[in-house]
Design brief:
This protein has 484 residues and is of the alpha+beta class. It contains 18 helices and twelve strands. It has helices at 2-28, 50-63, 88-94, 96-104, 116-120, 122-131, 138-150, 154-166, 177-187, 190-202, 204-208, 218-225, 235-249, 253-261, 270-279, 281-302, 305-308, 477-480, and strands at residues 69-74, 81-86, 109-113, 231-232, 323-324, 330-336, 343-350, 361-372, 396-403, 414-425, 428-437, 465-475. Strands 6-12-10-11 form a four-stranded antiparallel sheet, with no helix packed on it. Strand 10 and strand 11 (428-437) form a beta hairpin. Helix 3 (88-94) crosses helix 4 (96-104) and helix 15 runs antiparallel to helix 16. The longest helix has 27 residues, at 2-28. The radius of gyration is 30 Å and the shape is flat. The chain starts with a helix and ends with a helix.
Length: 484
Amino acid sequence: MVKKMVADLIHAGMLLLTMWLQMEAAAAAGTLKVDLTEEEGSDGNTISHSQTLVQRLEALLVQGNGSDVSLRVETPNADEVKVIQAHSLVLSLQSQVFEEMLLSRNSSTMVLRESSDCAAVFDKFIRYLYCGDISLRLDQATPLHKLASKYQVQSLQQGVTQYMTQNLARDSPSGHVAGWYEYALQAGDVVLRDSCLQYLAWNLTMVLQSGEWVTISNQLLMTLLQRSDLVLQSEMELFAALEAWIIQNEPDGLTVENALRAVRYAMMPPRELFHLQTQSTVLARYQESVRDLLYMSYQFHSASPLQMAKYFDVNCSLFVPRNYLSTVWGSPWIINNPTRDDRSTSFQTQLGPSSHDASKRVTWNALFSPRWLPLSMRPMYTETGAMQPTRVEGGRPRIIITPATSSADFAGVNFQKTVLVMAQHHGKLIVKHVYNFHQSTEENGDFLAEANLYRRTSDYLIDSSLFLHVVVKPLYQTLITNKN
């Protein structure tokens, strides 16, 4: 009975508040009366005073006129209390959680216990419920996302997630991407989690040089170390950063051993391996844990891949390159005015990461076509029987990368090509997309599918140019099938 009476009171309050808002909006609009139903034969024009209504709602919140509920926001230690005069109608319309709380309350005051960071932005959260917009800083994103999730305000939750994914490259005093990843993992926000992890993996060199690196968790560290799509200068750069993380965090022995075993020592030349064994204090302490990996790496550098494949599984991660930016494995490629015509370039890479192939070079020819149609979508012959050109209007961008010559040394080696598409966000050059293929980006099907290269303000262009970095990764999977 009491619950029904409370519900009736809330309903009556909602009706009164609705009438009051309508009167306020009408007063703001003068004596104009508009029939919002679209009549037959109307020209479709709309008269809107929504902005005025929002201003009235904001004033309603600020002044507390017609308030029928007090929100008392307390922190866990009750050292900070914030009281906000609110209206049941607005809270109930925006949040089902608030609606249920209002139905079950016993007084005009609702006590809400929030963490200190959420309490600090609670007034912003309530203002969003009234006005539908919000301004925020990087350090306010997580607590606002927490509040939106807790009170099931999906529009705000999605908006904050979008804000966070669009501001991963922003500068902050202590870094924020790793913290956002940990929060997204805990909150179950898959979109934010994957966006943060992708940014960290594709821009790892920048992350390693920031103060944020040594603060990442054990779990995030291992997640990154196990990925083959990390974009960084070299494996040695990764080991140096890992050593700094270990020294700073002093984790347990098992964590250190697992992390050290995730390093791809075979991707380091022997001179760097010798340096590690003689200079690294961390490796000196845990060398027994990785002795087998170091031994296999030295063998990998002393023998040909074909010989190695007879005795070892060269398909394991130890022998798989990451996306190294070193000139040994690829080349940057800046294409000015990319919609103009076809472009080509040539570059050289080392045949493979093994020292056995260190002196062998492969020359690669790369062709970029801004407007190319696959054969299945292209008319083959004109009326006179002449072959149509391969470039036609309405096509899509395409890159083909092929070796300039063939060689017996290529036997048993697959060359995976990776194109990194760069973009400029908040003054930083970051990796926006990564495409993997064996010969042509046509294998992907979505190469630059979302890019509008004709628009000067395109996110994919920097000073009207397309910034790419081509990486060639020698892989030895084909050798495994030949083993007895």
